Amino acid sequence: SPIIPPAPNAKKIPPIPVSKIGEWVVKGKPNPIKFWWNMTMGAMTQLPNTNMVREAFKKVPFVVVADNLMTSSALYADLVLPVTTIFEDVSLMAGVRSHYVQLMEKAVEPPGEAKPDYWIFARLAERFGFGEVFNKPIEHYIDTCLEGSGITREMLAKGPVRPVEGDWIPFKDGEFRTTTKKANLFIEEWQKKNFSPVVTWMQVSESVKGSPALAQKYPLFAVQRKLARSVHSSHGMNPWILEVQRDKPNVMIHPEDARRRGIQHGEWVTVFNHRGEHRAIADVTTHIKKGVVSLENGWWEQQGGSSSHVTNDQVDLLSNGHCCNSTLVDVRREA
What we know:
The protein is of the alpha/beta class. Helices cover about 20% and strands about 15% of the residues.
């Protein structure tokens, strides 16, 4: 039967915005953090203002990183727990990016002492006195997830199952998921947050026009892009991929911006601001606008550091996401 979660604690614990993890942990805001469990997240490559994230790792008395490789975050762990990859255990996939439900079958045995994340949690639950809820075989939890769907593990063992027949038509018959069932130009949820309920233009705070004093020091607007070599930072140190893809980060910069700084195509440069630095090779090209540079996401600490070292950790007012593409920097030649 489904797991019934315990009643929530009467004391509400205020959350930390993801983009502010580094700064808030360092400042003990809203509460001092004594223990940090890091899993399924590349904190030292994906969180903005990475130098502050490093300081946060150093400040927390006990840091556990559960991962399948010695990642950039694992470098700062007090304890590293080796976990299995998706190819080394059984699991269930029914994500929002696919129309299919799939059984993820074990392809190979895990190396060494690597264990699945749920196995580690089961052992912790046993020590806290409620292991019976967590220590059943993974098949039990897969069946629990499938309960009521009409799909069984036996069906999935034969191949992926598409639970809904026919084409998916967004806003079929003109019906929207709003209170009026129509497309709204007046957004009630925005009004509840004391924002204009009608779409309006707002100046980006960290930008040439939004923060002219900062732009005097760092006049270039930095955006980030993904590469075919990795998924965020996953596979970033895969030697096979590094053989067929580039093994060094690049930064795209317009020829006029490069000429002003004496930068030649193909030479090492440093992208920098008040948060930190990021080393990369200059790609001098008209494929990027003048006044803008494009950084590459996903490079590891062991490869010289992530582009997130310089990115803005401001919290977006509506979505609570981070503003990595609203970042001011400058670029200099390496001596």
